[in-house]
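User: Before I run my own analysis I want an independent prediction to cross-check against. Here's the chain; please return only the structure tokens and, at the end, one sentence I can use as a sanity check.
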Amino acid sequence: MKKLWHWVVCLIRAVIAFVIRHSVTITRVAVVATILIAAVVIFQILIGSKPIVSSADPNKLPQRVNVFTATPVPVRRQWTGYGTAEAIDSANVPARVTATVTCIPPEILEGATVTQGQTLVQLDASDHTNQLQIAQQNLAGVQARLAELDTLENWLTQRLDVETRDLELARDELARIQDLFSKNAANQKDVDAADRVSLAAERGRLLVEETLAAIGPRRNQLLAEKAGLTSSVNIAQINLDRCSIKSPIDGVIQYIDIEVGENLALGQRVARVVNLDRIQTPLSLSANARSHVRIDDTVRLTSTADPDLFWEATVTRIAPEDDPATRTFVAYVELTDKQTTPHTQQNKHTSLAPGVFVNGVVMESNTRNRIVVPRRSIRTQRVMLVHDNMIQSSKVSEDYAFEGPLPTLGLPDEQWAVLDNGVQQGDLVILNPTRSLSDGQTVQPVRLHEDAMTDRAPAQHQSIQTVDSNPGDVK
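Assistant: Structure tokens:
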């Protein structure tokens, strides 16, 4: 018993010593614990004293929803296609002779403007000059032989006249001797002598006629040779002229492919010149659009690299065949006025450069009044209508979609759907059919007016207007 009491006393002394040594820490822990207990008590008191709010029936507090009145508006169907702009007038200028480049004028640089007939490159013309001289000399030789032949023909013609007269005299003499012989006034020897003279005169005349007849074929041969040599002279002259390579059109130099001292081969490209006065874009459109797209339909070409740049044009030509592989056809859009009217920068102008990939929107020329709703109002092929302050969904059939401002409806949207059915004129269509809305739910429709929406609508870019505020007046 004494031993147990001894241990109790020791423990009490150890506790007293520990409390004395850590009195500050113990005090702090006690204060923090007291504060926490007090906070919990106050929180429980506040929860117990809060007022109880009774829940209300959500059907008795109708939700406000934004709606607009469905109204037929004049619209034109749009067809979208893509294509690459290209210059109608361009030229790959080739070397038409084999020669060495001797000179490129200093003003002939890539990007420089040139005119038709302006010299682009000068080639070494010495070989072609020599060939021209040889052809000219050969031609002069033939012309000299033709002149000699003309002189010979004149001389033979005169000699033929003399030989013909001589033959006539010999025949007259023979006839006279034969007459005397018949009268026994001349002997046979005189007749034979006169006959020999007549034969000699006839032989001389035949010889002159034979020589004169050979002049015609010789002349024809020389004339043929002259024609060939004349062609050789012309070809040599053309080759000499081709040593000065000129621009075939007005335009801007795209490429210079050669250098001074380079030996050019026949047909090798020297430069490329592009005329920017007329630019065309072959637009690939869906084959379904062929029966709708017509020449002179309005087109808006938009650069895919810079959507702020677009060009207004018209369809000028339509390809007669469809591509069976892609099920598309080509409509050609030609631009002669190359200035643009960007959406956001009215003072910015640029031309449609060849090679630019563009998005083309073709507008049908015919206008029809159709029911149009924003794309955001359609959810799972249905729209929500409000009848007698109650929601009623309706399945719709979308004919086609288009983009652009539609000021007639007074909404800021630019993506629209043209409906075939499901919405009638005068129906109240909910703009944003959220998941919280359901059929049969009572709502309070709030009509959006054009004046109110205009203040909140984003700035409309200048583009081809789908419709105008006046029905039937399509821009």
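Sanity check: Residues 126-182 form the longest helix (57 residues).
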